[in-house]
Specification:
globular, Rossmann fold, binds S-adenosylmethionine, alpha/beta, seven-stranded mixed beta sheet
């Protein structure tokens, strides 16, 4: 019963919603609803943002792109990790997220996040400028990924990394997109390798999601 109530409330908040389809056409225009869903307090228990960012081993002064940043749920801990001399580019196709993202960051005392309005096929990041491209629950929205990885690689510094955090497709999980829309560890690994990156994985830090790191 408790689990049913949890799934129902997460559904209402949008995490377990049925309209979550792949590709670039998913609609995040109802920004207040999505901000509420992404910032839902209970998310911390399974998303473990502090542990995930610690795992990345970011250095002060580094530059991170949070691709598909939405409310900036991850942009804030990423920005804290790179410190006042570093930057996080919060990259989004939906500009409606930028005001709440800035408000939530200011409320948290975080001032080193810059927003970048992307297009669906281009993150609009400067060449050789980024240490880590961080992609949480966004990769499956991107169509034409081989060409997109090439653009991301162009934006990476020589030792830069692409980090993908996404839902296991083969687990019963009360949050996230439908199983059929999730990307498997094997598929994302193959894609990152085909893009010329060396891939390492962490399948145990998070209960619902894998972490894949592709290094240049
Ligand atoms: C499920 S949300 C993930 C939000 C955030 N990463 C988090 O973990 O809270 C996916 C976000 O990716 C954005 N998005 C979708 N396609 C994108 C693209 N091609 N480039 C940048 N952002 C994109 C959507 O507008 C949406 O805000």
């Amino acid at each position: 019963m408790k689990r049913l109530l949890l799934v129902l409330s997460l559904s209402l908040l949008g995490w377990a919603q049925p309209a979550h389809h792949g590709g670039s056409h998913h609609d995040f225009k109802d920004v207040p609803r999505w901000v509420e869903a992404f910032e839902e307090k209970s998310r911390d228990a399974w998303q473990k943002p502090v542990e995930v960012v610690e795992y990345l081993g970011l250095q002060p002064g580094q530059v991170v792109a949070d691709l598909g940043a939405a409310s900036g749920y991850f942009s804030r801990p990423l920005a804290r990790a790179v410190g006042p001399n570093g930057w996080v580019f919060a990259v989004e196709v939906e500009a409606g997220f930028f005001p709440p993202l800035h408000q939530l960051a200011a409320k948290a005392g975080v001032h080193n996040i810059a927003t970048v309005l992307a297009s669906f096929d281009d993150p609009h990041l400067p060449d050789a400028s980024i240490d880590v491209v961080f992609i949480c629950d966004t990769l499956h929205h991107i169509e034409g990924r081989p060409a997109y990885y090439a653009r991301l690689k162009q934006a990476l510094k020589p030792n830069g990394r692409i980090v993908v955090v996404d839902f296991f497709p083969d687990r019963d999980i009360p949050v996230g997109p439908k199983k059929s829309e999730r990307l498997s560890v094997e598929q994302v690994t193959r894609e990152l390798q085909a893009a010329g990156l060396r891939v390492s994985q962490n399948l145990t830090l998070l209960p619902y999601q894998y972490i894949l790191v592709g290094e240049r």
